[in-house]
Specification:
- The protein is an alpha/beta fold and 376 residues long.
- The chain folds into two domains: 7-42 and 177-370, no CATH class; 49-155, abc type-2 transporter like domain (abc type-2 transporter like fold, 3-Layer(aba) Sandwich).
- Helix content is 67%, strand content 6%.
- The chain is built from 14 helices and four strands.
- Strands 2-1-3-4 form a four-stranded mixed beta sheet, sandwiched between helices.
- Helix 3 (60-70) links the parallel strand 1 (49-55) and strand 2.
- Helix 10 packs antiparallel against helix 13.
- The longest helix has 32 residues, at 178-209.
- The chain is elongated.
- 32% of the residues are buried.
Length: 376
């Protein structure tokens, strides 16, 4: 391999990138925009669930019960109403997700030692959010029942019976902040999409503009041409990685607890594979439109849906779980979250690192073998 020829191709590609502000903007601006949108806009935390209340009794006991929901950060009472019709309209319009109806004999049931009926109307359009909201409401009711039980025994000067005391301890994300989960995964999405999309256009662009014939006529070998086109985008990808890490640390305050050098090394390994995949797509397509479409289908959608970034893999059907083993972002996201949040190294992450190496080796081999210096 002649390094002078590789350098010449790389310099040509750098000049072409600098002269094309759209490609440069795609490489630098889109990662920033994606991080801001996903970091701020996408949240898996369920808080301030809008709730409408119909207190049919309007007593001290019922108001005290409602206060437990009002003081919880998980619920936001939007108003008090006096009929089902208003509650239904609020839920239909999406202004309220939950409706709380308290029986007119609420305090009578409590004073007589009976279970007081309370109705909770849930908008189940979004089943996951509805289940989480029901869990929060159940927790509030259970806490209120414990208060009633303790008050009952104290009023009669009877010792409170013994019970289990479950003490839970949360590791790695004590405050349950979803941005700790999203931002590291978003780095994998950005690197995969940008790398595959940018490089998928590079060889196809040469074919469309008719400059590939000129390159074929030169002494530059196939692997030298591939590597020369590869280098500029590798530099841009690593720059995107630095920008993403800085934004995650200083804009979203996501802690980076692990080894920074290990993070860069494994990210570079993943980036080489993603860039090689893009070049392979570019050599197959020979059309920028087709190459960009193939890049989106082979990089963005699998990374977003099948890597564990948005949905847990163990919750997918068995057949889909088998497919995820062929999605390289699955391993990279696990590496990112392990280094970011758990401060673990290769002693634990070596299976994922090995999988990334295999993916990169296959992608590089495919890209070099697919590109041939001939017109047809």
């Amino acid at each position: 391999m002649n390094l002078r020829r590789v350098k010449a191709i790389a310099n040509k590609e750098f000049i072409q990138i600098m002269r094309d502000p759209r490609s440069l903007g795609l490489a630098i601006v889109i990662p920033i925009v994606l991080l801001i949108i996903f970091g701020y806009g996408l949240s898996l935390d369920i808080q301030h669930v809008p709730m409408a209340v119909w207190d049919r009794e309007n007593s001290i006991a019922s108001r005290d019960f409602i206060l437990n929901f009002k003081n919880s950060k998980y619920f936001r009472i939007i108003g008090y109403y006096d009929n089902y019709r208003d509650l239904q309209e609020l839920v239909d319009r999406g202004r309220a997700m939950m409706g709380l109806v308290i029986d007119k004999d609420f305090s009578h049931y409590l004073q007589s030692g009976q279970a007081a009926p309370v109705q909770l109307i849930i908008d189940g359009s979004d089943s996951n959010t509805a289940n989480i909201a029901i869990g929060y409401a159940t927790s509030v009711v259970n806490q209120y029942n414990i208060q009633l039980l303790n008050g009952f025994f104290r009023a009669r000067q009877i010792a409170v019976p013994g019970s289990l005391n479950l003490v839970s301890r949360v590791w790695f994300n004590q405050d349950f902040q979803s941005k700790y989960f999203i931002v590291p995964g978003m780095i994998a999405v950005i690197m995969m999409v940008i790398a595959a999309l940018l490089t998928s256009l590079t060889v196809a662009r040469e074919w469309e503009r008719g400059t590939m014939e000129q390159l074929i006529s030169t002494p530059v070998r196939s692997e030298e041409l591939i590597i020369g086109k590869f280098v500029p985008y590798f530099v841009i990808g690593m720059l995107d990685l630095v920008v993403s890490i800085l934004m995650g640390r200083f804009l979203f305050f996501v802690p980076l607890r692990g080894n920074l050098l290990l993070l860069f090394f494994l990210s570079a390994l993943f980036l080489v594979g993603a860039l090689s995949l893009g070049i392979f797509i570019s050599t197959v397509a020979r059309s920028q439109l087709l190459a960009s479409q193939l890049a989106i289908l082979s990089s963005f959608l699998p990374t977003l849906l099948l890597s564990g970034f948005t949905y847990e893999i163990f919750n997918m059907p068995q057949a889909v779980q088998l497919v995820t083993y062929f999605v390289p972002a699955r391993y990279f996201i696990k590496i990112l979250r392990g280094i970011y949040l758990k401060n673990i190294g290769l002693g634990v992450l070596w299976p994922e690192a090995l999988s990334l190496f295999i993916f990169t080796f296959i992608a590089v081999t495919m890209a070099i073998r697919q590109f041939k210096k001939k017109i047809a």
